[in-house]
Amino acid sequence: MELPKDFLWGGALAANQCEGSFDTDGKGLSIMDVFTKGDKNSKRRVTNGVLTGEIYPNHWGNHFYVNYQEDIELMAEMGFKCLRLSIAWSRIFPKGDEVSPNEEGLAFYESVFKLLKKHRIEPIVTLSHYEMPLHLVTEYGSWRNRKLIHFFEHYCRVVMTRFKPYVKYWITFNELNAIEFMPYFPAGLIFEDSENPQEVIYQSGHHILLASAKAVQVAHEVNPENKVGCMALFGMNYPRTCHPEDVLKAENVNNDFLGLIDVQVRGYYSRRQLRKYQSLGIDIAISEEDKVVLKAGKVDFCSFSYYMSLVQGEDRPGENEVKGNMVAGLENPYLKNNEWGWQIDSIGLRTTLNYLYNRYQIPLFIVENGLGAEDILVDDHVNDSYRISYFENHLKEMKKAVIEDAVDLMGYTAWGCIDLVSAGTGEMKKRYGLVYVDADDYGQGSFKRYRKDSFYWYKETIETNGNNL
User: Fold this and answer.
1) Catalytic residue among 368, 392, 404, 460
2) How far apart are alpha carbons 27 and 11 in whole angstroms?
3) Domains of the chain (ranges, CATH numbers)
4) H helix and E strand count, the chain
5) Which of 124, 275, 329, 351 is the most exposed place for a label (fewest CB within 10 A)?
6) Which regions span the lipid bilayer (predicted)?
């Protein structure tokens, strides 16, 4: 047996991390345009507007806005069946609350989609990937405000109508569940001293869930053939030991990770999630009309990012903590770490696929997976055998999940298929791509593209539909 013939192989990008041209052709500021550079040892900071003397790597990205034609040609050369990318909301509605869209922004994405169609590459479009308009934060308080549901629905209707001939796969919000531990990324939340952060997070999360449900309804109305997915940040949390306390702790963390994603898939809040709010002493305003909207806006598929697994257990002194992709857990002695401390667990991808499919019983889609590393360009060549090994091991486990475990999997998109700015650290040197971009953390360089060794390996993998694994 082998993978389905229509399996969607491809790569993934986010507008704020790759496009650059942050103030070009009518684009408004997004929340990532005021997010400074960081590194392994220092966190990125949110500034009050764009300040002189600060470094904002998202302002240049990898120049995809001006280089998209060459980039798509490279994707076509690799044989991509799909490309996951996002629309920068602030390119379409610079402030987010306008009635009329920015035609230059619409024209840009239409050109991208036309070129993808020419090469028979299916776009998988994320509507909000950590790049909401900054004006919605400063003027309305971000997703605290129910008015944003209407603004987002209007944005969705505009782009879904305009791009109906080109796009049939949509994702509403990227890693929505990250709002619980990194609230600025998915929701642009900055807290006042007088606020209860948890109450703000979960009320904002409720409004985003309603906006997601509205997007699903709009998509199905505009084109009944449209398929709309949620997107979860997830990797299995293992118990540190078989001690029942450790097992319970790991299962509780897994359930907490997916509490909001459950709503997108099932169309209602679980009793567990509502009890969680009660135990936290917070009151989330959920009307009867809201419940109807959530039920009518269930997603068609569940996409997710997978980079690492974690270990959980009851607290014991002296244990090492590891972090990665905004999450943390205990160190797993059976795994190796990458340069940024993320633990590499290919079997964990198979376990995660089984866990999610058994939980939801709807098609899954791996839309982020990859290895960040400090690649070295020598004589126009990058030997990234470590990345090939990473992909090979993960894709072997993915195949087992599909062929042996009967998981319904739509496709796989390698994250950052062309080097881009890291969301977590704001670095360019933390490279994920199959294509090297000659640019440093400060936007210096030719921005010329070079095929890495992994480029050719992935090309063969797609050509053989994974039979080379």
Assistant:
1) 368
2) 25
3) 8-463 (3.20.20.80)
4) 15, 16
5) 275
6) none
